[in-house]
Every structure is written in structure tokens, then in C-alpha cells.
Amino acid sequence: MTVTFLGVRHHSPACARLVARTIEELRPAHVLVEGPADLNGRLDELLLGHELPIAVFSHYRDEGRAATSWAPLCDYSPEWVALTAGRAAGAEVRFIDLPAWHPAFAGRTNRYADAEARHAEATDRLCRRFGVDSADALWDRMFESAPGPTPGPASDQAGDDQRVDGLAARLDAYFDVVRGDAAADEGDQARERYMASWVRAAVAAAGERPVLVVTGGFHRPALRTLVDVGGPEQKDLDLPRESGWPAVPAPPDGAIGGSFLVPYSFRQLDAFAGYQSGMPSPAYYQRLWEAGPRAAGQDLVRAVVKRLRARNHPVSTAALIAAHSTASGLAALRGHPLPTRLDLLDGLAGALVTDALDEPLPWTRRGALAAGAHPVVVEMVAACSGDRVGRLHPDTPVPPLVHDVAARLTGLGLDGSRAVTLELADPADLARSQVLHRLRVLRIPGFVRVSGPAHGTDPVFTERWKPAPGAGREAALIEAGCFGASLEEAAAVALGDRARDAGTEAGALADVLFDAVVCGATRLSAQVLSTLCAGLGRAASPGPLGRVLGTALGLWRHDRVYGVARDPLLAAAIDAAVGRVLWLVEGLHGSGGPDPDRLRALAAVRDALLRAEELLSVSREAAAAVFRRISLDAAAPADLRGAAFGLFRVLAPAAGPDGGGTGRDAGTAASAGASARAIGDPGTLGDWLAGLFSVAREELTGRSGPEPLIDVLDELVRAMTETEFLAGLPALRQAFAYFPPREREQIAARLIERRGLRGSARSLLRTTADPLLIARAQELEAHVRRALDTYGLRATS
């Protein structure tokens, strides 16, 4: 009896050829493959006849942890070849790794994430030794570019023999160096002990027939040691067995988990898209697997040229000749029998990229394409990635959610490809809206919301949805099946996960709350709000609290669609947010321009105090006292002082006839005009006004008081020098931006009347020029007048 261990790199054509050749030569009794052992009973489903690439998607959820994992397979994956070629040779084929839910995979979303990537020091040494830039270039040079005739399943036997000869020994040496003496982490050790128990079971069952073990190369040295009969780890391998095989661990009681097949794409497999274990340029390697290096190289160049020309980028014959010459020269210099992927890409880049590059070429390093890459380089990478998308066999089982969504869309007339307009006051349209929002929350492609209510105070009752490309819809639905069997349940669980991930981030929790409402997930709203209220007490700034308060208050006051008006849980969130904002703003010191988020939060506090005071632990009078103190605090930001003054004026009762008591005129400026005059600094006036107008813009348009604010501002602005006016103009513009057009026209009319002029206020507001530009022009004209006067050149009437 012999055990053959093949250490492979996932998604490597060279390793796939080696696996096929080894199975043909050994005719093993058992082929053991790194993969989820809980899928062994469903291997017939895996081998139905899908169009690859596909992936095994696994999910797990318990009270303390939720996890998802993918195990992708393509035509040139060694694991796929081991399964198909092993079954064709009559071997008993089994997966031997722990299930994806197991704690050994904690924090790992891809089963085939390269373990050697966690030992980069060894690969860096090899890269320096072989004079290459990246681990991918090293792999290509050592394994994929080995000499020989056309490779792949369609090649002749002599060609395969020549290309595969010595490959196993080179792989063993490579992975021995990569792993070295480094100890694997606890997760890898647990997996290796479990896989070794399967190997020992297969050895016992095979008798004198050989056993083939195909795993990631990083695990091969440890497995050989662990399987050594009588070795020191023997005691660790005595696990419960079923029918002679190790038992598959079962999820803990109360946990939910499972695995399904999903379509995958070359784009998802591409290392340039961020897939840690991917071979870059999967379309190239697919062609390398099918037809060999010469055809793969020709297809690579053809795909790059076609893609660039389709995007109107000129690619001349002279440039292609130069690229071919450069690639051939690089191949000869690097000792490659034919130009490899990197030779071709370097040659094309040298001929087609004529600008200086801000980033190194992406194939000189490992990882995703950097932002700002040259457009030609981006298209080259995309052409080598390919656009192939896998397809599942029609008989493939899918989660119940897939059938539930299909039935709901058909029943509600949403299975077409036309835009949808929904009136939310109509119960039937509301049901359609909830279904579409649940799909949006689950990130299922197909529809995009283009308009509709954006928050609780938005008085919009019509939604519009437009169809969107449905690429990846089937895979997204299957993956969303991990959240629940029905659309409502899945959306509720997904929102619960978002609420938990948001922690104390009040803005994110406000978004979750509104999504829960529009999805009709009323049972989840209580969970979201309890999480929300717990986080509000630890919020660090008032701005995000304003989003929560605005959303919750709007829903509590105005909701006539979703059924949450006057909800006591919303009331609790409103009370918590108001109290926290008041605590944060009092004592806040500093300088700088207006903070719009903070001002919106104070406006939301005003609305809560005026419209929902019965919900709050703090009274209107107590809040007014807080704002009075802030308005008098010279160290507070100017916009906050202005807003506090406005809130005090809005919330406090008027003073008595004698001016005393606790009324709004007690202990502070008698009027907004007097307060504005007291500011003194023209550069600060605009910030103070921005705060005031954000919460009480009626202070400007009203005529009450001995000094109306509009008259005082007119005097202050006219008294400014031109330099002071230009310095304060941006802040003044920001302050008056709080007024709608109708009120701006009223202000303009008042100024015209005050100056004793005649004319249209509307015409003053309809200039198309930038006010700053007009101010600069006026300054230039004044400068010219002064120069003319200096030299006595101004004409007289």
C-alpha cells in the first residue's frame, strides 16, 4: 500500500495536470481532496454537469457568531480535477477537511486562502533568488512556464508527460521551503489533524491499493508527518468514526448552517480583484489549460487589442509588432521557451503605455488593482480576467429563499423588466415596496430605487424603481438564503446583523432603523431601537445623533404608511437622543466655521421639544436654560452660540412687563438685533447668523422689537470696509442659504423699502453671476476710481 501526497496551489493549471497524470498512473482506490467533509453526501450534486466556475457557499449562525465561506472551483482547479478524474478512474472520492462553520476557519471567508501567503518571508526570499517581482511571477516561472508541447486535457500523452515530469518534486521542494520550520496556527493545526484522520482511515480501507491525497501545498509536510504510522500524533487522530470513516463534526445545538452551490465568475477568481487565493488573469489560465501557452498568449494579445479598440484607444500594427518583439526578447532573457503571461503583459505595456505611471504595474506585486491605475493597464487586466460566469445545472438544489422570492415577484407583478412607480398609500403598492426594499437590503440585483422618502420627515409618498442588470442575481439569492427561508425573515436577520455591526455609530443605526421600517420588519424594529438607545448614551458627537432624532421623530409624528406612528419605542429613542445632544453641546468650546451636522441636530432637538415634549425627560424650560448658558459662553463656537440664542428665543416664555423673571429676555440680549450688534467681529457675524437661522430664521423676517434684526444687519454690512465684506461674505452666504426663495424675496423687498428705493425684489435674486465675482468686480471698479482720482483723470459731469 502507498500513500501519495500531492501539495498543490489552488487554481493552478500545472497542478491540475499533475493531479490528472497521477490518477491515471496510480489508479488509486481513494482520492482524498481538501474540501468540506460535510458535503461528501452531496458529491453527485457537485458533479451534476455545471458550467464552471462555481463555488460551495457555506453559512453558519448562532447566538454569538455568524460566518460565511466560499470554496471556488474552476476547470483548472486541482481539487476539481481530483474529483472528476478520480471518479472516472473508479476511485472512491471524498472531501476530508473540516466544515466551513468550524472555529478553525474563524475570520476566513475563503477556504482556499493561501496559507503560504501568511509566510511571506520565505516567498520573498525565493523572489529575490529568482529575480522576480511577485509570488505570482515566481510561480509562473517555476511551474506554469515549464517547457513542453501543448498542455491540457486535449493534448497528446507525450506532451503531458514532458510537461509534468519532475513537477511533483519541484512542488514538494517549493512547499517545504515555504512552510519551513514555522508552526501553523491553531486553526490550520486542527484542520491538518482532521485531514490526517481521513488519510489513515483510507489507508486502512484500501488494503494494498494506493491512496492519493490532494491538498494545499502548505499542508502536505504536516500531513505526511501526522499520517506516519506510529508517529507521535497518533493519539490525536482517534476521533469517533462512522462506517470506518471519521465523523463529520455537527454544528452546536441551536446553530443554523448549511452549504449550497453558487455560480461564480472569473472576475471573482481574479487576484487583481482582491481574491487572496486566486491566480491572476483567470481567462489566460483557462486558455493555457485548454490549449497551451502559445494559444493562451495569442488569445491574451487578441483580447487586449479588442478591448482597447472597443474603447476607442488606438492600437497600431507598429505598436503590436513592438510589443511582440519586446515580449519575445523578455522571454529569451528570462529563460522561457515561449512568452509567458508576464512577458506578454510587459511587452504590451511597453508598447501601448506612453505616459509616466504613478503606480507600479499591477502584475509586479500581489493584490487588487490600485486606484488611479493607467486606463490602458486597467483594460489589459480586465481583458486577461475575462467575463466568464458559471451556471448551475437546472437540477441543483437551492435554498428555500430562492423559491420564495420568485413566487413573491411573480405574485406582485414585479418579475418584468419595466420601471415601477408605487403609491405608498395604496396597500398593494406598499406590499410591492416592502418586497423591493427587502431585496435591496439583501443586495439582490435587479431593481434600483431612484426616488422615494429618504427619512422619516420626508413628505414623499411615491417611489420609483428602475430595472438594473441582474448579473449575479442567482448567486446573490443563494447566498442570501443564509439569513432565512423567507424574504421577510432574511431581510430582518440581515438588518439585525447591520445593527449589531453598527455598534454605537448613531448615523448607521438611524439608517438601519429606517430600512427596517420601509421593509415592514416591524418585529425587528424593537431590536434595532433597543440597540439604538443603548448606543445613543455613548455617542461622541451631536451630528450623527441629529440623524437618529430626525428619523425617529419624523416616523413618530408623521408616519401614515408604515404603521409606526406614536410607537413607544420610537419615543424612547427620541428621548435618549435629545438628552445626549443637550449634554454634548453644553461646554463645547472651539472655533471654526459652521458645522451643518451639529446645526441639524439642534434643529431636530427644537422640533422634539416643540412637537413631542410629552415624550421627553427634559422640560422645555430646562432646555431653554441650557441654551441661554451656551449663548452667553464666549468660548463656544459662534454658530453654536447663534443657534443657542435662537433656541432660547423659541423655547423660553416671554419676559414679564418689567423685563425680569425667567423669560426669554432675562439675562441675555434684549433682541436678536442687539445680540448681532454685540458680536463685533465681522468675520464671526456670518457664523453666528448661520446658527441662528438654522433654528429660528423668523428672527430676521419679523419686525418686532426696538431693533429689528434685518435693520441692524443692513447697518452692520454697510459699515464694513470692502476688505471686511469680502472676508465675511462666504459665511454670510451660508447663513442666508437657510431661507427659501420666497423668504429671500421678502428680505430683498424690505431692504429696498428701508433705503427708499423702488424696484423689483425678484430681479435682485435672479442674477446668474456668482456674488463673490460681483463683489470682486466692485472692488476692482473702486480701485480704478481711486487711481483715476489720484491722477485727475476722472471725467466730470
Task: For the structure shown, list the relevant keywords.
alpha/beta; 9% strand
Give the strand content. Answer: 5-15%
Alpha-beta content class? alpha/beta
Largest sheet: 4 strands, parallel
Based on CA atoms alone, the radius of gyration comes out at 36 Å
Q: Report low-confidence residues grouped into runs of 5 or more.
A: 148-160, 229-240, 654-662
Q: Which sequence of strands runs across the widest sheet? A: 1-6-2-5
- Alpha-carbon distance between the two ends: 118 Å
- Count of individual beta strands: 12
The portion of residues assigned to helices is 40-55%
Mean pLDDT: 83
Dominant shape: globular
Q: Enumerate how many helices there are, as a single number.
A: 34
Task: Report on this structure.
The protein is built from 34 helices and twelve strands. Strand 3 (54-61) and strand 4 (66-73) form a beta hairpin. The radius of gyration is 36 Å and the shape is globular. The protein starts with a strand and ends in a 7-residue tail after the last helix.
